[in-house]
Each structure stands twice: as structure tokens, then as C-alpha cells.
## 1
Amino acid sequence: MTQAAGSGSDFLQLRAGEAPAKGLTGWLTDGLRGAIAAGRLAPGTRLPATRQLAAELGISRGVVVQAYQRLVDEGLAGARTGSGTVVARDAAVTPRPPVDRRRTLHELRLPLSTPDGIDLNLSPGVPDLAAFPRAAWLRAERAVLDRVTAADLGYGDPGGSPRLRTALAAWLGRTRGVLAEADDILVCGGVAQGLALLAQVATARGEAAWAVEDPGSRGARDQMSHWTVRPEPVPVDEHGLCVDALIGTGLRTALLTPAHQFPTGVVLAPHRRRELLAWAAADDRLVIEDDYDAEHRYDRAPVAALQGTAPESVAYLGSVSKSLAPGMRLGWLIAPRRWQAGLLAAKHASDLGSSALPQLVLAELLAGGDYERHLRTVRTRQRARRDALLAGLRTHLPGARVRGVAAGLHLLVELPDGVDDVALAERIRRTGVLVHPLSWHRQLSGPPGLVLGYAAHPPDRLAEAAARIGQAL
């Protein structure tokens, strides 16, 4: 040994001090052989340079050379000029049971990006990922990296980058009518994390149930249930959430999608908005406003967010999941100020704060106008896709009634009473097209239907999907 006993390497956590006094070569060979057999050193893995490993272990380089040569002699490794010693491609490895991740996701009822046998995924909520503004994002990222400071890359404020919160306050105020200062905004990992934070604070306050729209997002209900909040259904009609029924529940919190109700597509009518906000203001109640796809509208005027009318009664949620990509995991939560301290503490406990660089890049896109230019481009693409799917449905399902076409990224096909929409969706699935039965998004009984997302596919593929749906019907 050339260094003190106990010297060690990060490589396989080897410690020469654990070796017998006169058996270093055998000890090292056994360690390497065992790691290969267990799969810790996969075939093709390059072993550390002999000089480097010897220095880390505090042993003679000749010991490492001899150990490597034994592996070569046993056919477990091979020496390559210029590449050092590499674990042999055919090295015997003790097989481990394979991990069937797709089965695990299925058993947990979690979504698969591309389910088996599906080539046309019309699930609602799947955006147009091909439209991601790569060039604009790259320009913004370069600009950010050119001036980012060390402090910007630290833990920072768990509520989010001040630059992004400032940009969001201005943009949401201008485009959605939101009334908020930068310090009112909490940057989170999408609407899903915003809901999780609200659920944690609500349950700590003793509010174990929320009113939800019916039909309404099954994903949101599952999220609530995970955080031990019980979803209580309130019916939706052609004017949106039935506020009289909400009042009858006796609950203090309601989650809804007023600008574009999921999945029916209706807009919360003005008289219902007034009734809802009066309900919320009367006894310090809370409306959670999920503004999930308000950027996408085609045949109607924009609908302002509820939050701008009653910022002390409404918690506003939004994200870039439908406008950029869900993989960005960037969203925002603007809650009444009496809730903000609890939410900030929950966010800090969850992850110490969202990733810094994507926040700074989004702030750059917002400040420079690139984000809004991207939205205009995407809106034109999605209008064409919606039109293609509508035309296909008129051709192949001429009697169908279609709702929710004026905005969003999905539409609803209503079916005659008595049709089993779950069985029908399964028949359609066997043609390679994935759709959601409306029953999936219900807790109460109601008419059947199919929910079809159209954002992820070009017009010709949507026309093909409509033809296959027609064949299944």
C-alpha cells in the first residue's frame, strides 16, 4: 500500500483496507467478478484506468493490472487499444426478474404515453408536442445563460423565480384578467402540483371534501383522492356548474373549469358566475379555478378568469402543459392571501422550489413576446385539426351531436341513451384509436358520450380516426 489503510474508490465502493494483507489481487478480482455477475458492471462497461484506480485505492498499480488480466483470462473482460479494459459483451450475468413498467402503470391506473396497439391516441389533454417552439426556446435559453447569476442557480425563493412571477403577473393580467402581484404567484410543477398543495393545506384546515363538476376531470378526482380529499359531484348543465346544487352540499371548497368546462366544453354562464362568487364570499369559502386550456379558442370571444373579479375567493391554476409541453412541469397557483403562507410552506416541503432554468427561459419568452407569437401559431394549427375531425365525424357519424367545439383541444360526441360508452370505446380501441368514454369522467348517472382530443395529430390522421370510429359504431 502506498496510502493509509481505508483508502477507497467511488468505483464499486471498493476499500483496500478491507482486503487481506497478502491477498490484494484476489480481493480486487473477486470484487470485479462479483459486480459483473450481479449486473452492477454491465457488458460493455469500461473499467477505470489502472493508474487511476490504484491511486484511489492506495495500492500498487501492478495489483490492478493483474486483477484486470485475470478477468481477461476468464473471458469476463477484454483489453482494447485506446479504450482500456471493457467488460465482455458475453460476460455471464445472473439474470434479474425484468421490471414490467407498463404493467405497473396499468395497475396503478396511470397513463401510458403510447398504449399498446394504439396508433391514434385521441385522449383529451394530449397537446401538439410537435409544435414546441424549439428555436425560440433555444434563443431564450442562450440569452438566459448569457446573463444568469450564481444566485439565480441557488435554492432561492420556493415560490418561484421573481423574474418569472413578474412576467406572469403582467401576462395573466393582460390576457386572462387575473388580478395579482408577483408575490401572489407560486410557481409549481403544473396544475397537478398546485392541486396537491391546495389539498394538503385544505386537509390541514379540516376540509376533507371538495365539490367537483360532474361530468368532470377524472384525473383531478384521482389526484384529490390520493391526497385524501373526497370529491363530491355537482351536476353540470348547459350553463355550467349548477350552483343551487353546490349550495346544497354544504361544502366550503369547489373545483371547476369555468372558461371551458371539462369535458362538455360549456362556459360558465354570467348568472352562474355571480351566484358562484356570492356563494364563495358569503362564508370565506374557496373556488379553485382550473384554467387548463384557455389559450385555445376559435369561434368565440375570450372569457375572463373568475379570479380577477374575486381574488380573495378564488385560487387560480394554470400551466404551460397545453401550450408548450406537459414535460416542462411548469405551472402557477394564485391563491387568496390568507392561503399563501400555508401553500408556500407546503411547496418548500415538497421540493424546495421548481427548476430554475426553465423558469428563467419562460420569463424570457413572455417578456419578449415569443410565447404569445407561439400561441397564435398553435391556435391556427389546432383550428385546422378541429375542423378536420369535425368534417370526419359529419361524414362517418352524420347523426352525432358534437359539443365543445368553439375552444379547447377536445370535443364531446353525445350518444343516444342506453349506449354503453365504455364498451363502445373498447371497440374503437381495437381499431387502434384511443378515446375516452364520457362515463369515465362521471360520478353521477348521465347521458353517454365519447371525449375526443384532436391536438396531437395532423388533419389527415384525424380524418382517418373519424373513419375508424364510424366503422366501430
## 2
Amino acid sequence: MSGISSFAYVAGDVEGRPEDIPGFDDLWRAVSPDTAFSAMGTGTYRKMTGPLVPYVADCVAKVLSAHGVRPAEVDRLVLATSDGALGLLGRDVAVEVMRAAGLTACVPAVVSLQQCCSSIEALRYGWDLAAAGARNVVLVALDRTPDDRDRVKSFALFGDAVAGCLISRDHGGLTLAGTGLAADFSGMVGQDTFASRQAVARAALDRAYGQAGRAPADVTKIFTSSLYTPIAGFNAMAAGQARGLLHFQEPMTRYGHCGNADWLINLMDYTDKTGLERGALYLAQASAPGFFACALLEAST
């Protein structure tokens, strides 16, 4: 049986404040003219100042060091990123990361085109690779926004981060009990409604609970996308989830919305503060225009 463990993340090396973004007030009024930014819950964000690959290599090194796994023992590398960041990676990103991290014996892949839900689909893919015989799979979720003016959105303030974990047949941790991914084309083209957002969330959740043979009442904590506080609460209501189960607020306040790396960062923050309870069921989820993804994770250690 495989396990998911060795979580690590590397945030952007510079801390920024929203008001320091050139033209922030005008940018905010353009995307959300009727809302005070102070009500959104974001305090600071993190910014990468150098090339992406060293941040990724640093994250991979941290993931491997937790169990003393050597880079040459990694069979697969799965990179996940949001659509907007995909074009920034460059066609040689896999080779550059593998060289920098010493991953000379693995096969790389990229999972994207599902916005901030990409890393949960990558988790399912990595889990299937391990079930098919891969000994060590490294998953890395990454997102960055080079132009500060692009950070300001109606639903979140974007920060930069890389987060990852190890899926291994040699080490225990969390077990992937079920996953769900659903799409809503009306959301992809900006024509979604409350009803369509609710439907896509519940379709994905029902699929995950059905695979796991579990129920929403079994979930101890939910690690979700780090969106503005009112929006995260609204999304939880639409999905039939109790607001108190969500864990995202403190990381979001410090780091902003780090795209598809959010649920990993939020899981790590919760683990550092509270720890994972043996046998407990946790839910990782992500929402994006046109998508909803979730993964049920059972703590075996």
C-alpha cells in the first residue's frame, strides 16, 4: 500500500503588501468596486524574485529529505500548475528541474488546464502511478505571477509558491481514499451561476465520497483554496460544508492565494499546528472557474 507524506513548500522569498502594488486602489476598484478590500482577509503575499527552477528544486530536496530518499530513487516527477502559469514554464522546464534536483532516473509529466484544481488531479495520477509499480513519485504544485498588477482579482490576491509531497510504496502517511473532479463549461467561459457552481462541487464531492464509501460527516478538516474569506465561505455553503471545517485563513492571510499549491500549504499549516489524527479522514479541495476537485485522505500514521 502506498502512502502520501513528506509534505514541503517554498514560498516566494519577498513579502509584499497589497497597497504596495502600483495602482492597487484602481486595480481593486476595477475588479470589485462595491467591496472594501479590508473585508477580504488578506494581509500580505509572497513574491518570487528569481527564476522558478531553483524554488522547485529546493522544494523537491525538502520532500526527499524527510524520508532520506535519494534523488536517483525517484521514478516519476509530476508537475502541476494552473493554466496561466503553464505558458511561463518553458519547454525545457522538466529537464531543468531534473538536472537541478538530481532526478536523473525519473520520468516527468505535467498536469494542467484545470486551473487551481490541477494539483488534485496530479495527486490522483501520481497515486495511480504508484499503484502501477512506481516506487517513489514526487508531486510538485507550482504557481507564480510575474506581474504584480495581475495578482489583484475579484476572488483572491495571488502569491507565489511551490509545494510538494512524496507518494511512495516504502513510506506510510495519508491514503488516498477517493477523488472527484467535475467541470462546468459555463464557468470556463464566465457564465456560471450559483446553481452551476453548486452542481459542479456536489458532483465532484459525491464521486469522491462514493469511491471511499464515506460520508461528509466523517471529515475532520477541509483544506481548501485560499480565496478571500467571504468567497471561501460562500463556496462552502454552496457545497453544503460547514464553514468551521475549512482550514485556510491563516496561510491565506500570510501568503495570499498560491494557485494550485493552496491545499498542500493549508494541510501543512494544520499539521504543524494540530497534527493529523490516526484514522481521521481529511478533505483536500480546490475550486476554480469551471472546475471543482477534491480528494479524501485518510491518516494511517
## 3
Amino acid sequence: YGESRQPAVGRLLHRLLDAYPAATGLLINNEAAAAALPSVSYERGQRVPEDLSVIGRYSADFAATFSLPYSFVESAPDRLGSMAVRQLVRRVESASARKEPSVVRFISPELADRGSTAPPRPHSR
């Protein structure tokens, strides 16, 4: 889901959580949703991680800017940007490099554990 502004992001989170009431966890890959989730959780009376485990994918700088309490996988925009610029400069400066096939490089994921996950709660019957 691609909402990126409030209040649309908050409404979307409410709709998703309403649609999946048995969900025990969220993987947040949208920074706007990660920033909105604390207030949505509060409005719903959901505690993290007791009621809902949460892991995000964003940068440590983003987490600090919004005081996000969730564990997250570092998206490393600075590292990725540096790698891309080095590759671009290499291709611009070298005729032989321009002829090389495109390369895909991965960075190792780094988990910042902030205690926002727990074992799934038992299902109510």
C-alpha cells in the first residue's frame, strides 16, 4: 500500500488491522506507516509487543527522528547511495566499465532489536 501522508496512512492502518483482527505481527516497509503506527496502536488500545509484534524497515536516522520504539532492519540509505555513486563514477570515468553488465549488490541486513516482537499470542476460541 502506497499511502504516504496523514491522515490517509492512519486510516489505511486501521483498515488493515480491522481486516486482519487475528494478526499477531506487522512488517512495516513504509516510513509514513511506521511513523503513524504509534498513534494508531494507542487509539486501538493495542500494546506492542503484547498484542502486536512490529518490525520496520527504515534507517536508524528515521527511527531517531520519529522516536520509533520498534525493532527495525536498517535500510542503510547512506551506504547504498555511496555504493551507487562509486559505481556511477567508475562507469563515467572508464570506457571499459561502461561496457560491463549491470551488477546487483546486496548489503547485509542489520537488525536493531528494540524489543517490539514477542511470540504470537494464543488464538481466542
